[in-house]
Structure prediction request, 329 residues.
Amino acid sequence: MNLKNRDFLKLLDYTPEEIRYLLDLAHDFKKKKQEGIEHKYLKGKNIALLFEKTSTRTRCAFEVAAADLGMHSTYLDPASSQMGKKESIEDTARVLCRMYDGIEYRGFSQEVVEELARASSVPVWNGLTDEFHPTQMLADMMTIEEVFGNLKGLQLTFIGDARNNAANSLMVVCSKLGLNFVACGPKELWPNEELVKTCQEIAKETGSKIMVTDDIDEGVKNSNIIYADVWVSMGEPDEIWASRIKLLKPYQVTMDLMKKGNNAIFMHALPSFHDLNTSIAQDINEKFKIPEMEVTDEVFESDRSKVFQEAENRLHTIKAVIYATLKED
Prediction:
């Protein structure tokens, strides 16, 4: 499998076989990491990390992955780069690709990462946009495979705002790898119809099914994986909290809801508002009297929860993407 010099912008661009190859690489890298086997295969290479949206897992995963592979990484936050302000996206890409071997972008518009890729002569990797979150999906699939031993034929239900980047990307990766996918949430927050149709066509080829519903019982029935995400995404205005809580409170993942699945595990991309140990959660609780949001603390801290295994796997899957797109022949 040759992915050298390929961009990694969304999983719609990758075949099931290519995604499988990245997962196999990730499993191998995790084994090497656990056994202390050095794997500095990309020694001397450099990557730039462009962050318009802050992150714990994405930044740490890219930086540690680069170090493990023998690379150097440069982190550029919004205050450290002139991209989009004094310098165009195209010019930023044309500068960075002359200094770096790869460019990661985490921000708002999918069009920005696509424009970076068009202007860059080195691979560009999508660390998250408002539309897609492909590196998270690899970690999710790796985690599911570790728990169940397989992927094909399992059912994953996303509960909540089914239009967000996690839901979109889960629908794509499930259709590619043969998992049944259910988007479960209020009709006002259903995914883009065109994307649903695209994934349904892909699913026909892989033998899976894609469904969208606002019925919770129907949505989680037979589900092996129940997946939640924050109700208000980074960059959305604070004013929408009231309407979003009203819409999504009935879709909160509780232990009663978990029991409606098929001995389901719980997954979440993190961060999660499952308690009052953050300033945002405290503010929301003070305003709306809701101490837990998309998932209860009981579920989050239970044996069913695989969120920290999932978070760790961001490292191994991102390492696989970097290596696969930069390795020498």
The beta strands are 46-51, 72-76, 102-106, 124-128, 155-159, 180-184, 210-213, 225-228, 265-268. DSSP finds 13 helices and nine strands in the chain.
